[in-house]
Specification:
By secondary structure, the chain is α+β, with helices and mostly antiparallel strands. The protein contains eleven helices and nine strands. It binds acetoacetyl-coenzyme A.
């Protein structure tokens, strides 16, 4: 057992931390308030190589490991979870899926511009009536010989309006259940494909989440990922890695709120001494720090397993479950420590508290993570 990061991993973490402080922090409150997508910042993240972090350099990726991905996600999410979700979805739900299961032609055409960050991708599984119950897809992809005819609606799609490339999960043969589902690469601009308005959300308000509508969209057969009927397993395998990213996002939100609370409790005085001299506050800080460290270890373990080529589905669900609970609990406590100041935007913690909630919902609710974990336990 070895807990040290390599020199390279330390450098990557520092680059992410500096970027978050210098480029994300200045406009984060305004972007949240006006639901403004961090377009300039996403371009800079692409230049840093953070949008295709784990992709092989031969496909324009940075060839970094999953541990580095966790470090970057934590640092970015301490400051701006709306920006970090773009990084997470592009890396683990889009680039990973294409690199692991796409054809050589798909990698050349679609993965390369996504890994370099020239283009942004979206992962489209959720529907108005199929969120947790992912096999109940109503979107249909009917086999027409040389193409699929795609019809239906997708909901809550991260990068929904800014993406150029969409990985869409759809039902081809209902009679075959999950084995009748396919994953198709859909390009923005294909006839019959439209995007709905940006959702007005509680948190991660800078991220553009919207619905997608497919009306007789002709998707060429060569845009199907993997064999016929592989779509559901494609989605599940991709989400296994995605959950490491969201777990690290939750970790970052918690760590960001904790750091703010720690600093505030040293500065602010009450009853003649700094807040941090009161045992009630010390106990809160001790709980927060301990839970954050446990969440960090779960995230790093899941990433390490992935890097070793070992099974990591259960570990990523454990990391996501625990880190998202920690994010929620820690941010609520951070607001409490700040008192009235915690309730106003200038102090950042109220935003982190709002952002924390989505980590218990997307890429599988906490209840879904418990299903995944317990199935592995009982297998
Ligand atoms: N890896 C590989 N295969 C898997 C798998 C995995 N992790 N999980 C399931 N499978 C396989 C099973 O082995 C089974 O295959 P066989 O029949 O060949 O054995 C098949 O898939 C069906 O599995 P289940 O019977 O377990 O399927 P289920 O209907 O009971 O569902 C579930 C399982 C875990 C609940 C799943 O539906 C799930 O994860 N739901 C949540 C979906 C989700 O995370 N949605 C979030 C949307 S994405 C998002 O939020 C993106 C964003 O924009 C941020």
């Amino acid at each position: 057992m070895y807990f040290e990061l390599s020199e390279e991993q330390e450098m990557i973490r520092k680059a992410a931390r500096d970027f978050a402080q210098n480029e994300l922090k200045p406009g984060v409150i305004e972007r949240d308030e006006h639901q403004k997508f961090p377009a300039e910042q996403v371009k800079m993240l692409a230049e840093l190589g953070f949008l295709g972090m784990m992709v092989d350099p031969k496909y324009n990726g940075s060839g970094m490991d999953a541990v580095s991905y966790v470090l970057v996600m934590e640092e970015l999410s301490k400051i701006d979870a709306s920006a970090s979700v773009v990084v997470s979805v592009n890396n683990s739900l889009v680039c990973f899926g294409l690199e692991a299961y796409g054809s050589e032609e798909q990698k050349e055409k679609y993965l390369k511009p996504l890994a370099s960050g020239e283009k942004i991708g979206a992962f489209c599984l959720s529907e108005p009536e199929a969120g947790s119950d992912a096999t109940s897809q109503r979107t249909t992809a009917i086999d027409m010989g040389d193409h699929y005819l795609l019809n239906g609606v997708k909901n809550w799609i991260t990068n929904g309006t800014t993406a150029s490339t969409y990985l869409v999960i759809a039902q081809t043969d209902k009679g075959k259940g999950h084995r009748g589902i396919n994953a198709l690469i859909v390009e923005k601009g294909m006839e019959g494909f439209t995007q709905g308005p940006k959702e007005n959300k509680l948190g991660i308000r800078g991220s553009d989440t919207c619905s997608l509508m497919f009306n007789d969209v002709k998707v060429p057969k060569e845009n199907r990922i993997g064999e016929d009927g592989f779509g559901f397993k494609f989605a599940m395998k991709t989400l296994d890695g995605g959950r490491i990213g969201i777990a690290a996002q939750a970790l970052g939100i918690a760590a960001g709120a904790y750091e703010l609370a720690l600093n505030y409790s040293n500065e602010r005085k009450a009853f003649g001494k700094p807040l941090s001299n009161h045992q009630a506050i010390q106990f809160k800080l001790a709980d927060m720090a301990t839970e954050i460290e446990a969440a960090r270890l779960l995230c790093l373990k899941a990433a390490w397993l992935k890097d070793q080529g070992l099974p990591y589905a259960q570990a990523s669900s454990m990391a996501k479950l625990y880190a998202s609970q920690t994010a929620m609990k820690t941010t609520v406590e951070a607001v409490q420590i700040h008192g009235g100041y915690g309730f106003v935007k200038e102090y950042h913690v109220e935003r982190l508290m709002r952002d924390a909630k989505i980590t218990q919902i997307y890429e599988g609710t906490s209840e879904i993570q418990k299903i995944v974990i317990s199935r592995e336990l009982l297998r």
